[in-house]
Amino acid sequence: MATEITMPKLSDTMTEGSFIGWRKQVGERVERGEVIAEVETDKAVMELEAFTSGVLLKIMAKEGENVPVGTVLGLIGEPGEVAAGTEAPSHEAAAVTPAPAKPPAPLAQEAAPPPPLAPPPSAPPGHDGDDHEKASPLVRRMAREMGVDLSRVRGSGPEGRILQEDLAAQPAEAPAAPDATGPAVVPPGPAEVASPAVPPAPSAMRQAIAATVSRSWQEIPFFTATVEVGMDACREVVSELKGSAGQVGYHALLLKACGVALTGFPLLIAGGAGGPVNISFAVALPDGLLMPVVRDCAHLPAAEIEREAARLADRARSGRLASEEMSGGGFSLSNLGMYGVDEFHALILPGQVAVLAAGTVAERPVVRNGQLGVAPTMRVTLSSDHRVVDGAYAARFLAEVRRVLEHPVLLLAAHDSP
User: Fold this and answer.
1) Disulfide: which of 44, 142, 343, 355 matches 379 by Cβ 3.0-4.6 Å?
2) pLDDT tens digits, residue range 246-293?
3) Nearest Cα to 362, choosing from 228, 226, 256, 224?
4) Distance from chain centroid for Cα 302
5) pLDDT, tens digit, for every residue of 213-232?
6) What beta strand segments (E) does 291-409 contain?
7) Euclidean distance between CA atoms 154 and 46, whole angstroms
């Protein structure tokens, strides 16, 4: 019996997905685990793998179509197999089924000459007419919102596919300049009453973010606590390792420090103690943000955390994160230090207990040994679910984070890092 290929539920907020297209043709052999199609969720473009081997018997979804979760997209089975309750593959059916005879058309008494055919509309200059094949629906929607003509964008993805990062480098289309040699400008008439501007509809990702933060704000009673961390030692580590195979940045050191500190504070980890410390971190996108997960931050060397975080961020920006790369996080880190933000409060991801918000590393006045001086510091703010932990517990965790960051040798000695 043929096996159904259905639209999967790839996130908690997903109710439908946009079908991007098939990688296989009807009648083509498919092996288990092979990528057969692509779908776009409210978070990213996902590759759809075959759960069984066989022949693609039939396709039931078209490119660009919005499909509810669970809808049958196609059938895989043995060659010539016809699934119960479905039609045979269209190509084979067309080859063996004679077409019904059509009744002869009545003769026209006076055959009028056919009207001349209208010339086909010409494409605008530089438009090759295949934008829909070079970019996902997510990229096309972003291009419309940014005012970018996709026919003028060179894609850096496979086979010239246009990625989100290609759009980021494109300026918006400017309005055409008036022709100086054209007719004289006619004085404007009475001003017309402008119609109220209609805001663009929010994207699927923005809708998902709105639902998530609303749920967090309404359901999680949280409190915040902030500490200032001396970053002299971390600055030396970052500087000494820069350019080497084991280079690390402040972001990787933060992930590592949180991973090490959380081993002593299991109440702050969703799922409790005993398992690996998996940390979600925020990646900003033109249309919102995604939260990929670095796994086992307590034991992974800092240099490996640096490489893994960079890999996940690249996949997030190209819309290629897999669902398993965004699931399983037990704690979150949001870092706005690269934007010069001193400190801020972050909302807790539903299902988790806490999130650490990190500001920029900057020279600030400090008092050490009774002397006023200047040193690099960073302010970190912990948002905690007050139903799970109290202020003293959160304060002790922040003290531990500060201790390991101000003595990064603890990170190196404990877990062979970086």
Assistant:
1) 343
2) 899 999 999 999 999 999 999 999 987 778 999 999 999 888 889 999
3) 228
4) 24
5) 999 999 999 999 999 999 99
6) 293-294, 331-335, 354-358, 362-368, 371-385
7) 22
Comparing CA positions, the residue from 288, 283, 141 lying closest to residue 210 is 288
CB atoms within 10 A of CB 225: 15
Cα separation of 11 and 211, whole Å? 13
Q: Considering only CA atoms, which of 341, 334, 326, 339 is closest in space to residue 383? A: 334
40-54, 134-148, 232-246, 282-296: which range is least confident on average? 134-148
If one compares 8 and 157, the residue with the highest pLDDT of the two is 8
User: Which 3 state secondary structure label does DSSP give 120?
Assistant: coil
Query: d(Cα 44, Cα 11) in Å, to the nearest integer?
Result: 10
Helix (H, G, I), strand (E, B) or coil at 23: coil
Nearest 5°: the CA angle 58, 63, 69 is: 75
Chain centroid to CA 115: 52
Give me 168's structure tokens: 């980021």
Measure Cα distances from 94 to 22, 80, 86 in Å.
21, 13, 15
Strands 331-335 and 279-281: parallel
What is the set of active-site residues?
Answer: 386
Coil, helix or strand for 38?
strand
Tokens 């119609």 label which residue? 195
Give residue 73's Cα distance to chain centre: 23
